UniProtKB/TrEMBL annotation:
Keywords: Cytoplasm, Immunity, Inflammatory response, Innate immunity. The keyword Methyltransferase does not apply. It holds the Pfam family CARD. It is found in: Cytoplasm, Cytosol. GO terms for biological process: inflammatory response; innate immune response; regulation of apoptotic process. The keyword Cytoplasm applies. The lineage of its organism: Eukaryota, Metazoa, Chordata, Craniata, Vertebrata. Residues 1-75, 113-169 form the CARD domain. This is CARD domain-containing protein. Residues 89-98 have a biased composition (Polar residues).
C-alpha cells in the first residue's frame, strides 16, 4: 500500500491517458468487482478522476489488493500501452543498497523524480533554453516514449539553433510526466548541467 501511496501522482499522470483500459484490466484480474467497475466507469468523469477513484478503491481494500494491482502493472501488454510504467520497477528493489545508490545516493521513486523534474524544468526554463546542447538526443528519448508527437519532433529538428529547439520543446511540455521524463534524460545526457542548476535550488 505504501508503494501505491508514494507513486500515486505518477500513476495518476500515467494511467489517466487511457483509464478505461486500466479499468478493464483490473476487473479482468478480479482486483475490483463488477459493481466497483460500474461505479468507477462514469462517463462524466475525466480519466484523471477515474484513476484517482480507482487507486483510492484499491488502497481501501488492503495490502493484498494493492500488491495485485502492482503485479498487474508489470504486464507487458500494459507497459506497451503505458511505457512509463517500466520506471515503476525501480521502486520494487530490495532494501539492499544497489551500486547506483552507492554512487549517486538513494534511487528516487518515479513520483518523487517526476515531482522534482517538474519543479526543476519550470524553475530553470531560461537557463535550460540557453545551456542544453543535447536537445535532439532528449527529443529522441521523448519520442521513443510517445511523449512528443512526430510533428513536434520534426519541428524541433528543423529549428536552426539549440535555443530555438529548446523553446519548441518547452512549448510541447503538456504534463508533469513529460517534464519528469525530460529531467530524467537530461540527467543522463548533461549531468553536470543538472548538478550546477540544482545547487541553485
Amino acid at each position: 500500500m505504501e508503494m501505491l501511496r508514494k507513486n500515486k501522482v505518477f500513476l495518476i499522470d500515467t494511467l489517466s491517458t487511457d483509464s478505461i483500459i486500466v479499468l478493464q484490466h483490473v476487473q479482468n484480474d478480479n482486483i475490483i468487482t463488477k459493481r466497483d467497475y460500474n461505479n468507477l466507469n462514469q462517463p462524466k468523469d475525466t480519466g484523471e478522476k477515474i484513476i484517482i477513484n480507482l487507486l483510492d478503491n484499491v488502497m481501501g481494500k488492503g495490502e493484498e489488493t494493492c500488491q495485485k494491482l502492482l503485479k498487474m502493472l508489470e504486464k507487458k501488454e500494459l507497459q506497451e500501452i503505458f511505457p512509463q510504467l517500466k520506471e515503476l520497477s525501480i521502486t520494487q528493489q530490495t532494501p539492499q543498497q544497489t551500486s547506483e545508490e552507492r554512487t549517486n545516493g538513494p534511487v528516487m521513486t518515479p513520483a518523487a523524480e517526476q515531482s522534482k523534474g517538474f519543479e526543476f524544468v519550470d524553475k530553470h526554463r531560461g537557463a535550460l533554453i540557453q545551456r542544453v546542447t543535447s536537445v535532439m538526443e532528449i527529443a529522441d528519448g521523448l519520442l521513443s516514449k510517445q511523449m512528443i508527437t512526430n510533428e513536434v519532433y520534426n519541428t524541433i529538428q528543423a529549428a536552426a539553433t539549440s535555443q530555438e529547439k529548446m523553446r519548441i520543446m518547452y512549448w510541447s511540455f503538456n504534463s508533469r510526466a513529460v517534464k519528469g521524463e525530460f529531467y530524467r534524460i537530461l540527467k543522463q545526457k548533461q549531468p553536470y548541467l543538472v548538478q550546477d542548476l540544482e545547487q541553485e535550488m
